[in-house]
Amino acid sequence: MMEHQLAPSKGARKARKRVGRGDAAGQGSTAGRGNKGQKSRAGYRIRPGFEGGQLPIIKGLPMKRGFTNPFKIYYSLVKIEALDSFEAGDNITPEALYQRGILRNLNQPVKIVGDGEISKSVTVSAHKFTKTAREKIEAAKGSVEEL
């Protein structure tokens, strides 16, 4: 047998249905598109969100419109006053905050914010610090370590 003699076995390949080729040709007249209307016409395509001329639901929900940045980093915020519950000289890490129940999970990076006061000298390790938080920790003779 040679390459030009290769052919699929009988019944293995089915001829496509030729629609719209006259009433006697199986799918004549409407060619399987139903009767009349925009969906039966050639070049039919409606844009996503089109509701047939009715006011689209997205226009009635302005708070749902807009853009969500997939690259935005969400931080777990920890106030300075929460760090005051630790002992003087402690090394405060995200794991220690999680064990104390100050953080809900360790999936997000930790940011220390300057709300409240701190009176003890501690070493704080976090991913980010606000300017006031850094100043308050250092004023209490503590140290700041960025992860």
What does it look like?
This protein has 147 residues and is an alpha/beta fold. It has a domain at 76-146: Ribosomal Protein L15, Chain: K, domain 2, CATH 3.100.10. It is 13% helix and 14% strand. It has 3 helices and 6 strands; from the N terminus they run βαβαβββαβ. It has a 3-stranded parallel sheet with strand order 1-3-5. The chain has a 3-stranded parallel sheet with strand order 2-4-6. The longest helix has 9 residues, at 131-139.
In short:
By secondary structure, this protein is α/β, with parallel strands linked by helices. It has a domain at 76-146: Ribosomal Protein L15, Chain: K, domain 2, CATH 3.100.10.
What's the layout of helices and strands?
Layout: E1 76-79, H1 80-83, E2 91-92, H2 94-99, E3 110-113, E4 123-126, E5 128-129, H3 131-139, E6 143-146
Parallel strand pairs: 1-3, 2-4, 3-5, 4-6
